[in-house]
Amino acid sequence: MDFLAGIWNYVVVFLLILTVVVFVHELGHYLVARWNGVRVDVFSIGFGPEVWGFNAKSGTRWRISLLPLGGYVKMFGDADETSATATDTPMTEAEKAGAFKHKRVGQRAAIVFAGPAANFIFAILGLAGMFMVLGQPITEPVIGQVLPDTAAAEAGLQAGDRVTAINGTTITRFQDIQRIVRIEIERPLKLVVDRAGRSLEMEARPRVIQRKGIFGDLEKVPVLGISADSSKTVVVSHGPVSALMESVRETESMVVSTFVGIGQMINGTRDSDELGGPIRIAKGAGEAAQVGIASVVFYTILLSLNLGLINLFPIPVLDGGHLFFYAIEAILGRPLGEKAQEYGFRVGLFLVLALMVFATRNDIVSLPVWDMVKRLFSGA
Description:
The structure is a single chain. By secondary structure, the chain is α+β, with helices and mostly antiparallel strands. Among the domains are: 2-36 and 103-132 and 302-378, no CATH class; 137-236, PDZ domain (Pdz3 Domain). Helices cover 52% and strands 21% of the residues. It is built from eleven helices and twelve strands. It has helices at residues 2-35, 93-97, 105-133, 151-155, 174-183, 240-267, 278-291, 293-311, 319-332, 338-365, 368-378; strands spanning 40-55, 61-75, 136-139, 143-146, 162-166, 169-170, 189-195, 198-204, 207-212, 218-223, 226-228, 233-236. The strands form five sheets. A four-stranded antiparallel beta sheet has the order 6-5-7-8. The longest helix is centred in the first third of the chain and has 34 residues, at 2-35. The mean pLDDT is 84.
C-alpha cells in the first residue's frame, strides 16, 4: 500500500500538476495565435509518439503524446515544434495569411508572450480563488517562542516581541519575516521590535542549517530561530476585488523572491545546489499531495508562476529568446540573418540542456541513496 501511495503522490500527482501547468502555457500561445489568424497544426501535451488525439474543425490536431514532460503548439509555417525555424516550402497568398512567420513582428511577439502571460494569469486567478474560498491566513508579527542557541536568542529577542521593521522594511505579518529571512541569506538583519510599548533595535544574522526532507534529502535553509504566536493568526475572508489585490501582491512577492534568489546564486551568496530539477519538483508535488488538495492547488499555482518566469529568460529556444530576437527585428526593421538565429538557438539549446543536467545532478546527489553509492564504490 505504501508503494502504491508513493506512486500516486510522487508520480501521478506530479504528472497531473505538470499537465495542467503546461496546458495553460500552451493554451495561451494557441488562443492568441488563433486571434491573430494563425493556423495551428498541432496542440500537444507531451512529446514523442501520439497516444491519443483528435482533429478539431479548425484543423488543429489535439493530442496527448507518450512523454508527458512538457508540450508544444506547432503553428502553420513552422518547420519544427520549437518555432525556431520556418519551412522553406513556397506558399500561396492564402497560406501566408495563416502562417506564423508571415505575421507582423508585433503579432509574433504577442503570440510568444501569451504562453508565460497565461501562466501568470492562471497563478493570480488561482490564488485569488483560494483566498475567496478558503480565506487568507494572516499571522501578526508577534514572536511566540525563541529557540535556544539560535541567532534570535543571541540577539536578545523574546517571546511577545512584535517585529515592526527589518532592514528598513515595515513588517505587518509574520509571513513577511519568513520571506525576508529566506532572501537576506548570510546578511545581518537590523530589527526594530516593540516590547511592551518600548521600541528596541537589535541585530541578528540568520544561520544556514541543513534539514532533512521527506526523502531524507538535505536542504540548506537560513533560520532566525523564532516561531509565531499561534493565537495571533486569523483567516481573512476576501471578496473578488480584495482577493485579486492580495493575489497580485503575493504573486509580486514570489516573483521578486525568485529573482533575488537567482541573483544570489549567480554572485555566489546562495548555494547553487538549491537549484532543483524534475526529481525535486516531483518531491514537492508528493509532499503537497500528502498535506491535502489545497496544498496541491497552491503548488500548481507556484509551478505555473515559475514556468512563466523561466520561459521569459532571454535564452534562445525559450519564449524569452524569441522575444529578444523579435525586439532586435523591431529595432533593425528586419529579422536577424538565418545563420545568426541558427547559432543562437544552438547555444540556447546547449544552455537549457546543461541547466537541466545540472539541476538533475543536484536532485540526485541530495538523495541519501547517493551516499550509499559513493560508499559502495569507495569501499568504505
